[in-house]
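ok trying this again, last paste got cut off
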Amino acid sequence: MNVSLPPYTYDDAYRAAFERVVPPLVEAFKPDVLVTQLGCDTHATDPLAHFALTTKTYRYLARALHDLAHSTAGGKWVATGGGGYQIYAVVPRAWTIYFAELAGGSTPTVLPAEWVERAHAEGAQELPDSFDDHGVILPPGRREEVDERAAAAAQETVARVFPYFGLR
């Protein structure tokens, strides 16, 4: 499902749209297996998508998708990696968060020193110090605009798609 979210969509707005659209549709569809593409080009530092998500939302999504796989598909979940252009600062953290959820594990608070050293040796410039980002600061006034536009986009998706599944 594609929800046409606005630029600067941040964690809370993204989660609200996800909750409004995704679980009801997955539950109505009743998949035999949940197949997801877990891209991370929605991260605040990614140069292409112009979203403002943090790895905290990837952690939230990992849990939510895992729960959906169990509630709708007997626990069967095929998760593939995907887009993301911050190959040192974001992609490894995001995919590790998802993999940890899939495997029933957890991530440490700080990034492993060995990995940080290797990433720097391979050319990484600035790296975060932990798996979870510390937050994103949006331009003044942007949060309210994003909240309104993201909610409207989710509602538009609901209005156009839900009737096909007998949902409101």
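PB: full thing came through this time. The chain has a mean pLDDT of 95.
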